[in-house]
Amino acid sequence: MKIKKEINLFAGMFTAEEIYRYGDIILLLGHIIYLALFRWLGVYQMVYYNYFSVTFYAVMYILLRCKKIGKTPFTYLVLAEIIVHACLGAYYIGWVAGFTQIMLCIIPIPFFITPNRKAIPYALSSLDVVMFIIMRIIMTSRVVPYSFSTHKVNIVYIYNTVCSFVIIIYVSSIYIFTNEHNKREAQAQNEKLQKLATIDPLTQLFNRRAMMDFIKMIENNCRRTGNGYSLCLGDIDDFKQVNDTYGHDVGDKVLRSVSDVIAENVPSEGYVCRWGGEEILFVVPNIDTEICEKIAKNICQKIHECTFEENSQKFNVSMTFGVYSVTSDENYDEGISKVDKLLYKGKSQGKNCVVSK
Fold first, then answer.
1. Tens digit of pLDDT for each residue in 314-344?
2. Which of 59, 81, 96, 284 is deepest in the core (most CB within 10 A)?
3. Contact of 188 with 195, CB cutoff 8 Å
4. What is the largest CA-CA distance in the chain?
C-alpha cells in the first residue's frame, strides 16, 4: 500500500507536458555526451550527426515549452531520431558497440502515445523491429570503417547500456503516469456522475433520491441505538406569486438563497435536500422535537429577513415549516407523512411559522 501511495504521489506531481519536457532534456544531455564520446573516438560522421541531434532536442524543448508541438508529433520525431542514430552508430562502429539494443527499448513507446489508434503503434513498432533486423543482416558481413580497442568498444557499449536502462525507466514512468492519469480521470468522471445523481443542480442541495438513502441510513442507526431523529419540511410561502410577478429567474434566485440559509443553519450532522419544487427537507439524527423546532424557527426568521430586489422593487419571502421527531420504532414513511401534514397545517394557520407535534 505504501509503494502504491508513493507511485500515485509521483504521478500526481507532474503534468503530461512536464513528463515530455523532462524526457527531451534527458535526450539532449545524452546526445551531448554522445557528441563528446564520438569526438574522443574521432568518428566525425557521428560528431556531425550529434551536432544536429543536440540542436534538434534544444529546438524540441523550446517548442514543448511554448506548446507549439503536441506530444504525438514530438514522439514520432524523437523515435525517428533515435532509430537513425542507432543505425548510424552501428554502421560506423559495429554491432558489438550496443547501439541497436536501444532500438528494442523504444518498442513500447508508441503504445503509450497513440492508444486509441490501434494500427499506428503496431506499425511504428514493427518498423523499428524491421530496421533492427535489416541492420543485423547488413552488419553480419560488413567491415566497419572504424576499428577500436576492446577497451574503447566496451566504454561505448557500457554507455549504450546505460542509455537503454534510462529509456526503460522513462518508458516505465510514462506507463505509471498514463495509468494514474487515466485513473484520476475515471475517478473525476465517476464523482461528476455521482454528483449529478445526488445533487440538485439549482440549489446544490441533495436531491430527493439521495435524501431517501440518508434517511434510511439514519433510521437503521437510530434503531440500533434506540435514539430518534427529527424531520423538518419547509415550503416557501406564495412562491407561485413570486414567479408570476418577477419571473422564474428571480424565483430560482430566491430558491437558491433560501436553500443557502437552510444549509448554513442545519447542524453539521444533518442532511438537507430539495424535496420537490419549493419544498426543502432536512433531517437531523439524535435530536428531539424541541431542538429541531428551535433550528426551524431560527431559519424561518433569517429567511424572512432576506431582502430581494428586481427592477428597483424590493420584496421579502417567508417559509412555513413542519417538524416531526421520528422514534426508533417508527418507519420513515410514517415520519414523512406526518411532517407533511404538519407543514400544511402551518399553511392553513397563516404561514411563516413552525408547526410541530
1. 999 999 999 999 998 889 999 999 999 999 9
2. 284
3. no
4. 106
